[in-house]
Amino acid sequence: MADPVKRRYDTSRRREQARENRRRILAAASGLFREKGYAATSMPEVAKAAGVAVQTVYKAFANKATLLKAVFDVTVAGDDEDVPIAGREFIAEIQAEPDAARKITLYFAHLASVAPAVSPVQLLARDAAAADPAAAEVWAQMRAETLTAMTYFASDLMLTGQVRPGLTDTDVRDVLWTYHGPEQYELLCLERGWPPARYGEFLRDAVITAILD
């Protein structure tokens, strides 16, 4: 009969090895996607860069599009911990703030801080979607998740009583969703060379003007 202590130890080691492999794969994929683009990056290249077998990559991520989505999720969160964005500290700070303008300021300051890492991954997915059906599904999922997040943010802003009269939750959500899009970062930062802080301030001012009384 196997020693139960040894079995638990072996299981724990396997889980930790799987987590480490996942971290290495995500780091390798992120670098390759940014350097070469989505279409030019292959799963065997990711495996080689991560120092694992290609079968290990496919075991962790069913296909390249799934891997791209995982890279995006980790980039947004800043880590690979199993904590949803809604449970993150910066969201709690925004929710606790009673003033609508301050909520918007906090949110877009955070967005500007992560945009240099996050927006290029979103743009990779958007561009890949034109030629890869699996990437198109991932891009649609990214957009849907953003819309859901902005739905919650809009509701939070409506509760302050400071939103311009006549605007509905849907109106506020759509304004937030539009300014949240990576296209704004692409135009202002990548094409026009704005620093991220200025980009964040522009979004903040535009949203405050558009939705607050």
TrEMBL record:
Domain HTH tetR-type positions: 19-79
Q: Which GO terms describe its molecular function?
A: DNA-binding transcription factor activity; transcription cis-regulatory region binding
Carries keyword Nucleotide-binding? Answer: no
Q: Which residues bind DNA?
A: 42-61
The keyword Transcription is annotated on this UniProt entry: yes
InterPro entries assigned to the protein according to its UniProt record, in alphabetical order: Homeodomain-like_sf (IPR009057), HTH-type_TetR-like_transc_reg (IPR050109), HTH_TetR (IPR001647)
What Pfam families does UniProt report for this protein, alphabetically?
TetR_N (PF00440)
What residue stretch is flagged as signal peptide?
Answer: none
Q: What keywords is this UniProt entry annotated with?
A: DNA-binding, Transcription, Transcription regulation
Where in this protein does the record put region Disordered? Answer: 1-20
Q: What is this protein called?
A: TetR/AcrR family transcriptional regulator
Q: Which organism is it from?
A: Amycolatopsis eburnea
Q: List the taxonomic lineage.
A: Bacteria, Bacillati, Actinomycetota, Actinomycetes, Pseudonocardiales
